[in-house]
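Can't paste images in this forum, so I'm doing it all in text. The chain is below; anyone willing to post the predicted structure tokens underneath?
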Amino acid sequence: MIAAWVGALSFSIWVYLLAGRGRFWQVSRAVTDLKLPLTAAPRVAVVVPARNEADVVGRAVRSLLEQDYAGRLQIFVVDDHSSDETASVARHAAADQGQRLTIISAMPLPTGWTGKMWALSQGVQHTA
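Text version of the structure:
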């Protein structure tokens, strides 16, 4: 009996959302066409922790650089002691926009930290 009541309540909520809220899941055209003036767009810093990611880091960096964003976008790739060419692949991917990419060599991992979180922490420190 309780399961049927919960099911009916859930169904009623969905009917209300679909019928009463008028396509609430779709973003209005006015919002998607909104262009912020360059002075209003905040600076965005992207921290990419990478260890032995030479096969994918280039695509990731290029994808970030191709974003249509009115503000300043700076990318920080933290090379976390890679044994492959992660840093050089990232640098090559941003060759024509190198000023927007900073490569950081990770410091040795201190006790109590995990690798990915330590790399992220170092990247965040460089964003200031």
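The chain has a mean pLDDT of 85. Strands lie at 44-50, 73-79, 101-105.
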